[in-house]
Amino acid sequence: KEGKLWGGRFEESVTDAVERFTESISFDKELYKQDIMGSRAHAIMLAEQGLISGSDKNNILQGLEEIERCIENGDFIWRTDREDVHMNIEAALTDMIGEPAKKLHTARSRNDQVLTDFRLWCRDAIDRIIKHIKHLQVSLVTLALKNEGLIVPGYTHLQRAQPVLLQHHLLAYVEQLERDAGRLVDCRARLNFCPLGACALAGTGLPIDRFMTSNALGFTAPLRNSIDAVSDRDFVLEFLSANSIIAIHLSRLGEEWVLWASEEFGFITPSDSVSTGSSIMPQKKNPDPMELVRGKSARVIGDLVTLLTLCKGLPHAYNRDLQEDKEPVFDSVKTISGMLEVSAEFALNITLNRRRIEKALPAGHLDATTLADYLVKKGIPFRTSHDIVGRSVALCVSKNCQLQDLNLDELSSIATVFDEDVYEFLGAENAVNKFCSYGSTGSACVANQLNYWVSKLEIN
Ligand code: ARG
User: Fold this and answer.
1) CA 192/CA 202 separation, integer angstroms
2) Shortest-distance atom of ligand 1 to CA 24
3) 337 an active-site residue?
4) Ligand 1 pocket, 111 CB below 6 A?
5) Is 385 among the residues known to form the active site?
6) DSSP-assigned letter for residue 97
7) Atom of ligand 1 lying closest to residue 200 CA
């Protein structure tokens, strides 16, 4: 009971175990800045509305400023018996300035307070993540610019399919990241509404101005429905869903780079600065950062699943369960930020092994589909072309050679339509040069894509 802001109706204090179990200060102190920001806006509004005096307001604002300084200097003592960040700050303010502090919680509940803090925090976090995304996009485009003209095998089913420009391959990730950023922008716009003034759940009979606080805090408008305001967590579900999709994209990138760094592929060599060794095998140089990018995607997905599960059975309005919403969000933001940062670092520290890739390129008949297009241009129906090229590939397999190694007699024995000009379509390089559809891997199309990103991302 001693020192509790809600102690009035209680005769006994909570047990130590309950106190330890129910506290959130150990993690929600992360919200201190937003909490002070919200209290400032609330105090100013209370004074404007004549609910507190101008001098009380000034005392509150000065006290809050002092508390913020104290926290930032590391001098603030966070007390578990004061439960959470809201009551720690309010009680410290009371210790510091006395009576006026007791008016700050007028027409406010921790239920609307915590959501105001949390929405403000998520808004900032989204802005930070979007910056990380942009940086990774720039790093991928930079890697693409360093490797002009490099052709790599394109895969489907992880089997060799068609030749593509490395730039094209990398820009596919840049596109995905752009949509990832777009999802966060959408989420930010949807979450940027103000719960403050919803109070416990029903609003208040006191003459507050919710539009004033909403404005002061940079929200679009106050939330329309006070019950919704304190019950809703779909803004965090949406945020963590967006993070999970980013995590999946990065995990795929990680998997690919881990494969490409293997002896079997040998497409890339990560620099020592992004590799780690083995405690037993002296020769090892491992692409651990990207393995962990792949691995940590599990945490980000887990955080989302935790929140979905947390919310699924809750009646309106606030329930204490909802205190569990914070750690998964903090973890998701920290994890996804690290994943983005390390992926960018990796992109800037890998070398594409041009010679190795070029040497490996003739295998796998990457030009077979281009050869079928050649026959279509000669007037052969595609299905027939497919069959002719299939039989040509079978001949290659039996002779252990590539399509371009077949002479015109051999090709003509399969179909008379083959002519000398067929060799302009064969080989990975010729094949790549034949692509011309919008968005394809043809060099002109890829150059257009690259120009688009260089200017959009403002890469000098
Ligand atoms: N620490 C709480 C949370 O994070 C704040 C709201 C508590 N409200 C209450 N009535 N117990 O959800």
Assistant:
1) 21
2) 1
3) no
4) yes
5) no
6) H
7) 10
323 touches ligand 1 (CB under 6 Å): yes
Active-site residue, from 26, 53, 271, 278: 278
CA distance 292 to 257: 12
Residue 378: CA atoms inside 13 Å, Cβ hemisphere, count?
Answer: 19
For ligand 1, the distance from its centroid to the CA atom of residue 74, given in whole angstroms, is 24
Query: How far is residue 317's CA from residue 320's CA, in Å, rounded to a whole number?
Result: 10
In angstroms, what is the span from residue 55 Cα to ligand 1's centroid? 29
Q: Is 110 in the pocket of ligand 1 (CB under 6 A)?
A: yes
Query: Which pair of tokens denotes residue 274?
Result: 């992004």
Cα 227-231-236 angle, rounded to 5 deg? 140
Q: Would the pTM count as exceeding 0.80?
A: yes
Per-position pLDDT tens, the chain of length 460: 556 888 888 888 889 999 999 999 999 999 999 999 999 999 999 999 999 999 999 999 999 999 999 999 999 999 999 999 999 999 999 999 999 999 999 999 999 999 999 999 999 999 999 999 999 999 999 999 999 999 999 999 999 999 999 999 999 999 999 999 999 999 999 999 999 999 999 999 999 999 999 999 999 999 999 999 999 999 999 999 999 999 999 999 999 999 999 999 999 999 989 899 989 888 988 999 999 999 999 999 999 999 999 999 999 999 999 999 999 999 999 999 999 999 999 999 999 999 999 998 999 999 999 999 999 999 999 999 999 999 999 999 999 999 999 999 999 999 999 999 999 999 999 999 999 999 999 999 999 999 999 999 999 8
Contact criterion met (CB below 8 Å) for 432 and 442? yes
What number does the ligand 1 atom closest to the CA of 110 have? 6
What is the CA(297)–ligand 1 centre distance, in A? 29
Alpha carbon of 301 to ligand 1 centroid (Å): 25
